[in-house]
Amino acid sequence: MSKKIKLPLKIFISLVILLFLLTYYTIGFNRHCKTYKIFFAINDFGIRHIVPCFYYGSTLVDRFKYTIKKNSYFYNFLLNIDKKFKKNQTRIDSLNKLNEELKNPYKNISKTTEYGIYRITDKLLNNKSINLEKNIEYNSWLRSHGGNWNNHFANNNFVNIDNAHKLKLAWKHKTIHPDEIKKKWKQNIEVNPVFLDKKIFYISSDWKLYALDAKTGKVLWDKECLFPPSRRGITLSKEKRGNYIFVPIGKKVFKINVQNGNLEKNFNSGRGYVWSATSITAPMIYKNKIAFANVGASPGLKIYDKFSGELIKEVNLHPKNKNFGGGTPWGGVAIDDNLGIVYLNTGNPLPTNYGVHRPGDNKNSNSIVAISIDEEKILWSFQETAHDLWNFDIPSPPILHDLRIGDKVHKVVISITKRGNTIILDRLNGKNIYDYIYKKAPKSKIKGEYTSPYQKVFPKPEQISKIEYSKKDIDKLSKKKQSEILNKLEDSEYGWFKPPSFGKSLIYYGIHGGAEWMGAALDPVNQDLYIPTINTPYAMRMYMFSTENKVLVEKEKTAELEIYNSNCSSCHGNKRNGEYNVNLDIVYKYIPSLVGLTLNKNNERRLNFKNFKTKHPNLKINEKNYTRVVQLFRDWDQSIFEENLIQVSNYDWFEFLTDDMLPASNPPWGYLTKLNLVSGKIAWKKPVGYIGNKLVGTVSFGGVALNSGGVLFYTGTEDNKSYAIDKFTGNILWTFDMEASGTAPPIIYSLDNKQYISFLSTGGGAINFKKRGSTLYTFSLE
Question: Is the pTM of this model over 0.85?
Fold first, then answer.
């Protein structure tokens, strides 16, 4: 018989086990799982729903890395050890010695005009003859953004321009009490609700999926999501066995019975879900298949059997040997379920503003890409911006339409973009409907940065917004504001496709501007687009920073280093990295990095003593000592450059604001644009959004929907209102004050000879969207 373990040893073993469990909970357990709601999630989605809590995206190694990164000393120490084993490996955001064999990929390229199906000057007849009843896309709302075509249109005129002012609140569903918003609110929700079987389905800001009685707002069932639910869309499926809703949650897509909220047990061998990598847009149904746009490590399209959940095919957007990151289909997708073709709008390449290590156009980024589900391959792609350095991804969901010009019908896909373009392409071959031209673009001043010598310009349709900032953009502001802005512009650059550079901020429109992820509403009869448009300037600032663990300064420069440390390091840091604190696109603290200044000849003016004294009048450094510090910088920069310890900033932009926290340009900063697809002409631009009692036109991140009664329903402005707007004139017919701003396009549905309009109000997301909420407001006529 073995001896009994002594009590102190038992206590020791128990403490070790307890310590291990606490360590695992702190480092290894996914942060989304550290809540009592884990038990509700297990009940709603099954025990497999919490598997990612333990390993997927939250392994001990991953969590250890995350924890270490918070401690810059240990992180840089381990980073340098890693670099000793990977001396020849280069990060794509590193500033290092360029490959001497790297040649300009654009050498000797000349481009002028690309002809479309119609000339820009052709006078075209707008054929308004269409039978709306025959197309399910105009008579249902089974998928976020109104259906597979993303047209945001409902063929019902119960509410019209004559009675819209009589709209009343039919019901509202609030999921978080105002006193608990800070505790329970997780994020603003951008998912447009869907409707089927007298039920409306939506996601709340506390990550719950709800099925409500569409007439009364009564909760029929709900599901607790432990991981982030779909960012941009959900989809309903009508099947013989019943009706279902497909919902991306975390890295899975679930199939749920709409009648009772149960998982479909026949889907993927009883699991009720499939691993989708990461999908944030609405799934697409085609015959017996369902497709998801994957924004994960291998961006593209994943195609499954919609009944069994079996993976059929993955179609990647990019080859494995691509030289850039990003280019993912995060913004929106559409499907022509007759042709079996999916259309994806893709994001910009990474790194965002430094493309030295990703030469060339970066194919299929900033593009509209067509993928055949039947042929399981890419059919064509069309790129708007080549070698993007400005974050001009295409975020809005593509819109499908049968464009009627005279007696001809063109099946088209329409993409509205941050650059203010409306690109109209043939759905079958990607050919432009209208001509476009190539315009000569400026060259970069950064060594090895080969910008595209040309960028596409689309004269037709007319641009809804622009990208180039100019001094004319402030001529309606007060003299005081103009003076303030002009002072800021002295240290900035601006202009059409001006490339980013070190040392100066680049001011332009389009980072969060033009057309955004909310998309647009299409009038299929008159062939007009109604586009929520944002027109606020941003500043992009490039800088270098050092990843050195120990300061790489030679001993003979100790005296110079002491001059720097005693006068400069309290602000710029002992490694000269400065400080850059940005939240919600607002700069809260900015101390410029001094790393790499001597590597750029364009910085000589910044390094002269006179400029230094102008910016630092209180520092008591004479010219002799300052010259010694500059020489220290030259040696220091060269040392860390040789060791590949300099990296270039990425995603460093912020709103260009005046001191009163308003955009540094003439209003309106947000407006609704009416654009005809045949004439290409803008009928009107109307500001939407109040500041105080004045209709100024604010930024909007909500969206628009249209009914056949001629009423546009609009939301997302900073004033937290929902709007009804006359589609003919752009005049406001009705408003309602919500608890927070609208954050998803409205949904329009009809039930028992009555039309309902629902607005999702969750707020947050940007600096002037101060209130948060979690309420679905639904309106109708009494």
Answer: yes
